[in-house]
Amino acid sequence: MNLLNKRLGLRLLPVASLLLSACATLPPQGPGKNPDSPQWKQHVSEVSQVKAFQTRGAFAYISSQQRVYARYNWQQSAPESYRLILTNPLGSTEMQLDTQGQTVHLVDNTGKQYASNNASKMISELTGMQIPLENLRQWMLGLPGTADSYTLNDHYQLRTATYQQNGETWHLVINDYQNDVTPALPADLELTAGNLRIKLRMDSWTLK
To answer: Most buried by CB count within 10 Å: which residue of 10, 114, 158, 178?
Structure first.
């Protein structure tokens, strides 16, 4: 599909102080548990049954080329059907991404629409943001996805993961979990690859 050669001008204002300061005050984690443990396998089984949900929170993308801070709203009705909305601090929609299997549509902040069959590639070409979306969809639920290696915390939940893609090594750290939902789901995670950092803070989870 034809995409813009120039990148979208995302009008996302800095609201990173809340997001970044919240991550800095989290307590240190223990040495973790064995990934072969039955408790971990049970947790994976329970999380894998979560097919439809909504989560809202704060998003930060920090690289040497750009800094993007936004509120996000992720609505998933099925494993391959979801909508991602990024809004600025004033509540205006900056980007809406809709995925139905291999069909991907994106609407920018001017209402212009784009289509593709690869969500990550579309976001990269239109915004400049490199996001491993397929694995992020698993990591945000606390599942390892196709990670090359991973570790658990003391509650038999995913703590860290390492993943290589297109010559880049991604490192995931899940700093905290929300225990007011069953099963417990991530509340704060961070991805790094070189000088690139992506942070998500989940303010709420609604399971459907």
So the answer is: 158
